[in-house]
Specification:
The complex is a heterodimer. By secondary structure, chain A is of the alpha/beta class. Chain A has 2 domains: 151 residues, Rossmann fold; 144 residues, Response regulator (Rossmann fold). Helix content of chain A is 50%, strand content 20%. In chain A, strand 6, helix 8 and strand 7 form a beta-alpha-beta unit. Chain B has 2 domains: 133 residues, Rossmann fold, CATH 3.40.50.2300; 109 residues, Rossmann fold, CATH 3.40.50. Helix content of chain B is 44%, strand content 18%. Chain B is built from 11 helices and 12 strands. Chain B has a 6-stranded parallel β-sheet with strand order 2-1-3-4-5-11, with helices on both faces. A 6-stranded mixed β-sheet of chain B has the order 7-6-8-9-10-12, with helices on both faces. In chain B, helix 4 links the parallel strand 3 and strand 4. The longest helix of chain B has 22 residues. Chain B is elongated, with a radius of gyration of 27 Å. The chains are: A alpha/beta, B alpha/beta.
Chain lengths: 338, 325
């Protein structure tokens, strides 16, 4: 009986020593963290704005490596517009041992499955560009969101047109009927930014005293090719009527420009949002009246700073001011041809 | 009250449940075969992956098929030999089982291998170096000399005689651009043409020189740009200043979406393109085979083509230039 008790005591003692040693090893591991692994999943790799953010993220990672001597591995994956693919990518990130995940959700209403997986694995998530619904964001304190305020983008876009109208009304009202006739190219109907951008852009024109009349509008899903096809159709249906094209993003504005170039029309004014590299090029060449630039360096910088801090188990940098401790809003500005 | 027979039955049920749990949720009884994931690092000579978009798609495809963990690494400064060496050493030390390297200086990498400082399999990308004889090295590349030659021949066939031909490129070109240039020069010399050179080192150098040349006889001016980066810059300049229709023609090489868009818009007249998806796929597959100590036959030169605007709608080129993983 006494021998049995001694064996049990020995076993528990051994268990305590093992637990203590394991704890020390964990501590050692944390101190020795010399590399970070960040999984990045993009809703669509061919979206120009997202691609710009991706490039900036890579620059941030390199800068961080050089400054801190900590190796950063960015696993960047393209979900190609499929939520299912993105869910699989999240699983792969977890199995590869990512310290943190940065996700640009395909479907903002379907983030819960990814959040479940991240919570189970204990991996923090930084969502960006497409904001998950509030209920999902409130499920865990290790979820963050980085984006631009859609209303602000729209108001700035509207003010580009207002300024132009005040400066030279004839440049917009080409037929002199006292009304600026416009068409509208919208992003995905399920994307919150698309609805807000449309609503506030038009509201700003009205508030700014620009007399406007909508000819037609269509959903081009943020895509250049779809916008090009719609514009081509409208140029045929409403010849000499369109004076302004309001686009929810630059890619769609560029698509409309493509259609105008094919039809050899250059008098219609266009405005975009995002200030992508080709968008900026179009502004410089005068093909695009203006665009709204979210500071991509700051945007990607915020994503990376949160991710790096979380991956290292550090508190978030004090210079990042987060709304409700979760949301970072990137500053924006107008970009026009001087 | 339950009798002893029923009790035994209940105990049996319980045991079956425990057994089923052990079978399905743990690997105590049925040991699941542990899948080994090997790390492979791809280190390129550039600071961005702009010229490696399709390559990465092929690379990712092969990584999934061969169950590899592939990291794509770019340099901090363009074509910095020492940085590339440090990254190679770092990746080797961090446990990479194979390296795929687009070398800044192929001789330097080879020297590191001969000195046994690189002890893991190495796949050279876009380099003429082949096996070192130890069976741990392979090569995935295109025939850039032949690409240059074909581009020049096609350009000569398209352009009227008497055109002023300019070759534009970096004043310190990389190995690929040098081979491409040699191919172009060979074809031009055979046709009795003497091209002029415009060389620049910094961004904007070539743009300024080209603008100056275009002021004189733009219609008789044909530009052949030897690398994708400068080709993008010149195409952008022609597009912004609406000069693309005014010159004899702009030619070059590259497969970025931006360059293909310029070709589609008629800014670029002819483009030498490579099958980068296959290059990415084969690089990773080759690395996997070298890791598994299998003999890898030389893949030879991979596919490359000269294309014009109308070829972009050709199904075969569409698949090659806009691959879907």
């Amino acid at each position: 009986m006494r021998g049995k008790l001694r064996r049990i005591r020995c076993f528990f003692l051994w268990l305590c020593v093992a637990a203590l040693l394991a704890g020390c090893r964990e501590l050692e591991k944390k101190e020795e963290k010399k590399s970070l692994r960040i999984g990045v999943s993009l809703y669509r790799g061919d979206d120009t704005f997202i691609n710009n953010i991706r490039s900036e993220l890579e620059s941030c990672a390199k800068e961080f490596e050089q400054e801190n001597g900590i190796k950063v591995t960015l696993d960047i994956q393209d979900a190609k517009g499929s939520q299912n693919t993105q869910n699989n990518q999240v699983e792969r990130f977890i199995s590869l041992g990512c310290d943190v995940m940065c996700i640009n959700p395909v479907d903002r209403t379907a983030a819960s499955a990814m959040i479940d997986k991240a919570m189970t694995a204990g991996i923090p998530v930084v969502f960006f560009n497409r904001q998950p619904v509030e209920e999902d964001m409130n499920r865990w304190d290790q979820l963050y969101y980085v984006g631009a305020v859609a209303k602000e983008s729209a108001v700035l876009q509207g003010s580009i047109v207002v300024d132009q109208y005040r400066k030279d009304p004839d440049s917009l009202d080409r037929n002199g009927d006292g009304v600026v006739s416009y068409v509208l190219l919208e992003g995905e109907s399920s994307h919150q930014d698309s609805l807000i951008r449309t609503e506030w852009s038009i509201q700003t024109l009205k508030d700014g005293g620009v007399p406007i009349e909508k000819i037609t509008g269509g959903i081009a899903n943020w895509e250049r090719s779809q916008a090009s096809a719609l514009m081509e159709q409208w140029l045929g249906e409403y010849p000499e009527m369109i004076e302004l094209v309001i686009c929810n993003n630059d890619d769609m504005a560029l698509g409309a420009i493509d259609a105008m170039e094919r039809a050899e029309i250059d008098h219609i004014k266009l405005v975009g949002i995002d200030a992508t590299t080709p968008g900026q090029e179009a502004v410089r060449s005068g093909k695009l009246l203006g665009t709204v630039s979210a500071d991509k360096e700051q945007y990607a910088g915020a994503i990376f700073s949160i991710a790096a801090a979380k991956a290292q188990g550090d508190p978030l940098p004090s210079e990042l001011s987060l709304e409700n401790g979760k949301y970072y809003w990137s500053p924006q500005e107008i970009l026009v041809n001087p | 009250m339950i009798n002893s027979k029923e009790r035994i039955l209940w105990i049996l049920y319980g045991m079956v449940l425990v057994l089923l749990f052990l079978l399905s949720s743990t690997d105590l009884i049925i040991k699941e075969k542990e899948m080994q994931v090997y790390a492979v690092s791809v280190i390129v000579e550039d600071t961005t992956d702009d010229n490696y978009v399709n390559f990465r798609k092929g690379m990712d495809r092969a990584a999934i098929e061969y169950n590899l963990d592939v990291s794509f690494i770019t340099l901090y400064d363009e074509r910095n030999r020492e940085q590339q060496k440090e990254l190679i050493m770092r990746e080797q030390q961090d446990g990479s089982r194979a390296l795929i390297v687009s070398p800044v200086d192929p001789g330097h990498i080879l020297q590191l291998q001969e000195e046994k400082r690189i002890s893991i399999p190495l796949v050279f990308l876009n380099s003429e170096i082949s096996s070192t004889g130890e069976g741990k090295t392979a090569r995935i590349t295109f025939d850039y000399y032949q690409m240059g030659q074909e581009l020049a021949e096609q350009m000569l066939a398209e352009q009227p005689p008497g055109q002023r031909i300019f070759l534009l490129g970096d004043s310190h070109p990389d190995q690929i651009s040098r081979q491409f240039q040699e191919g172009v020069l060979h074809a031009l010399e055979e046709a009795g043409q003497e091209p002029a050179f415009l060389k620049g080192r910094r961004e904007g150098d070539l743009k300024a020189q080209t603008e100056k040349e275009l002021l004189r006889q733009p219609r008789q001016t044909v530009l052949i740009v030897l690398d994708p980066k400068n080709l993008t810059e010149i195409a952008q300049m022609l597009s912004e200043e609406n000069l693309s229709g005014e010159i004899g023609g702009l030619y070059g090489r590259g497969t970025t979406v931006r360059l293909l868009n310029y070709l589609d818009r008629g800014v670029i007249r002819g483009l030498s393109v490579t099958d980068d998806f296959t290059a990415g796929y084969l690089s990773v597959r080759t690395a996997a085979e070298l890791v598994a100590n299998r003999q890898v036959p030389d893949a030879g030169y991979l596919e490359s083509h000269y294309i014009r605007r109308e070829d972009l709608r050709n199904e075969a080129y569409e698949k090659m230039l806009y691959p879907i993983e």
